[in-house]
Every structure is written in structure tokens, then in C-alpha cells.
Amino acid sequence: MTWTILVLVLAFALYLFGGMLIKTDGKKPAAGAKLAQQIVRVVAVILMAGCVCRLWTPYYLTSVNPAIVQDMVVGMQEQQNAEKNKVIRKYVRNNLKEMIGEAPIWGNQDAQNTIFLFSDYSCPYCRRVHSELARVMADRDDVRVVLKNFSIHGPLSDAPAKAVIAAKLQGHDKAAALDQLLMDREYYTQADLKDQSKIADKVHTNVMKLAKEAGLDTKKLESDMKGAEVAREMANIRDLASRFDISGTPYLIIGDQAFPGAIPYAKIIEALN
To answer: pTM of the predicted model, to two decimals?
Structure first.
């Protein structure tokens, strides 16, 4: 800003007095001298115009019409999402089976419409979108939700993510039941967070209590959580998150469209249709 004002002052001075820099012989300047003076003035005008635009534009965008900035950001995001959707669309169409991997499925496994839900059980926005999806599943029997339990928050996320994947080995319905309980209940407290050295054990213990309530064999569940199938599915989730540049949750892929964030029921239905 300081440099812009300085250049503006110099350009104004150049416009007023720049002609004096051109040497002339006699009272009547030669044609070349006149041309040089005109060029100096044109350069001064261009510099002044550029400086005024540089000073006025930020003021206009931030004070006079800030909505333009918002529209620009929205437009840029839409363009980025469109490009990302192209990548996702191509990959989903060619690799649907591999994307599902060994994930638990909520609803009819052979349903025509597929929703991939990348979520984290310690994420409040995931709980919000989970309730919206529950409405969709209640209204539609042609939809399945593939649960991709993205472990983002370390010990707060690891045990529930692995438990739901392992629960699938006892039945997709058991995995869905545990998933519902983990989304509906608090499986750790603020008091638990005070001792970070024990939080993983406390979360694990509380998840096992909910697993038992969901009708799961908890001994088998604990063994399966350490098994190869859970490890492969966790790796599959990380690979997809990296491929699609998923950095947060919730994140939905509905059909072959991507939706970051907790989208509402109407938006989900619109995407399915």
C-alpha cells in the first residue's frame, strides 16, 4: 500500500513536470521533443490509473461490495469440487468393489444406490449427518451406506472404528447396531480426557460395553479387531482418503458425487435422485 501511494505521487509529479525533463532548443520545441513529452505524460497517466485501481479495488471488495469476494470464493470452491468429482466419478465407476473392501454395510447389501460415509465417532458433525442418513434409510429401501470409519482423533477414534469393522464379521446387522449406539451414546467423558495416558483403555472398555449391548460376542470382537481383515479395511480407508484428498469428516460420496460436511436430508435425497 505504501509503495502504491509513493508511485502515485511520483506519477502525478511526472505528469505535471515531466515535460521539463525533455531538453528543447529555442522557444519552439522540435517534433521529437513534443513526442517525448507526450510519451512521458502517457506513462504518467498509466501509472496513476494503475495505482488508483490498486488502491480502489481492495476498498471496493471489502467495504463497498464484499459479496463479490464471497461469490468468488464460492465459484472457486465449486470449480474445485467439480474437478474433484470428475476424479471420484471415474474411480467409483471402475473400482466400486475395491472401495467397499471389507467395510460394514448399513442397509440392504445389494441395494441399487450406494453412499460411502467417511466419519469419525468422536466428531459431532458426523453424528448430525448420521441422523439425517437414518431418515433416508427409513424412507428408502434402495439405499445402502458403506461405513468408512476414518480414525482421525487417535485413541478417541481407533477403538470404535476397529470395533465396527470387526463387528461385521458377526453380521452386518450387528455392525450397524454398534454403529448406531456409538453415534447415539457418549463413549467417553470429559473426566476421561484428563488422563491422556489412560484414555485409550477407557474408550476401549466403553466400546466393549456398547458392543455387548448390541448383541456382539465381545471376546471374538476383541480378537477380530487385531486381525488382518480390520487392518486391510483401515488401510483401504486411508488410501481412499488420500486419493480423494479427504482431510476431515463427515465426507459422503453419493453415487459418484462428493459432499464434504454434514449435508441435510433433502440434499442426500436430491443426490440419490
So the answer is: 0.71
